[in-house]
């Protein structure tokens, strides 16, 4: 939204923090988050699914429902005060709270909610990924999602899918409710305000956008029209501090209240600081090795099995992964339906075993391949694999940098990265690791990691689809358990070693800031003591 004179002065006041000495403490009514602002490509909820951007839009826009970070299986009211699932599970009716307003002062109505949800699906960007799986398309969404009156929304589910999955999806950050009246004032050539919403906001959440400077900062102020009361923090600033050592110094001196993406070495240095708390927030993704099945050597099941024994995951557990992951070798996240009750190492670091498998596969002298990290944040893991693989005769040439595009395009040999997810259900990770409905290059199913590795297994794909259709919790858990066992026995192209953990570094003077596993971390409960 355009800056008023009042907001301009607030921007100038807040920006003074950027030139203050590092020893300066942050103001008592302002939360300062050190993060990678460069990871925010747009402010449009329909186009986002990454951690930093999701956190920001989750504070600019409320959703119909929400999930608390400590209880991800209980969907709670947000803008919708109640909802009802029709008998048969093919329709959901939601009732909005009465008397709510957007930051602009416009009333929040069912028409705004319907426009916002339809818009995500019609934009066909990353925010629509889940709803596309539930059968929603740009062609059917106007009929499937509609307003019955000013406060009533009806969602008819087009495909055979558990209504629980649809409701979970409504809690995702991309499903934020936009002030349609304000947004449509900026629509150009029927773009549903896409260009304007890229750098502006029409907020329903607890905070309003003051300024966004890409690769520099984001400034927000509390929304005095917020339906649940104005937050204690009058302002929240996200500062671009990509260098981990600098961010650590800012945290130690109090120039930053919350730190994100702090490197492993700096996390170790901060761990014993009495003024610092390191939150280890569990995520719905894994750290993995990916092997391209278009490669004639890597497509050999014995070679894939050998790679299982070539990462010193126990050593990494006490080093790079102490704050970033927990040992795990299942594609079902811990604590979810069908997951093992506890960690069971199905494959250990064993160079001699890897050598035997390579010899049996026909490569007693090893081979050479290129190893890509997802980004430089993975270099320690990559270098560990490079060193241990060399002991078995595999020469891996490491190419530093960000190589996600090559992974998406199937243009890699060996790759190491980690996945994330916002849907608190094992179906979400199954679509990453065990789902590939069309293995052709032309399909370009880049959202599915199994497709990226060109591994085709129709049985796993059908089992994933079955968990989407099944509504009985016990039966779903049984399918996931079978899928997990089958996956392990198949020598997959995606080898899981750790479940993801997102470390949030928070000064102890801050209370009420809790990292959220679905990246919808909120600021409205934050206070300073």
Q: Care to describe what's here?
A:
Helix 11 runs antiparallel to helix 13 (351-361) and helix 18 (458-469) packs antiparallel against helix 19 (473-489). With 529 residues, the chain is of the alpha+beta class. The radius of gyration is 24 Å and the shape is globular. The chain is built from 19 helices and 19 strands. The protein folds into 2 domains: 5-254 and 508-528, Periplasmic binding protein-like II (D-Maltodextrin-Binding Protein, domain 2, 3-Layer(aba) Sandwich); 284-500, Dipeptide-binding Protein, Domain 3 (Dipeptide-binding Protein, domain 3). The longest helix is centred in the last third of the chain and has 17 residues, at 473-489. Helices cover 31% and strands 22% of the residues. Strands 1, 8, 9, 10, 11, 12, 13, 14, 15, 16 and 17 form an 11-stranded mixed β-sheet that branches.
* Overall average residue pLDDT: 93
The percent range for strand residues is 15-25%
Shape: globular
**DSSP summary, beta strand count:** 19
Distance between the termini: 32 Å
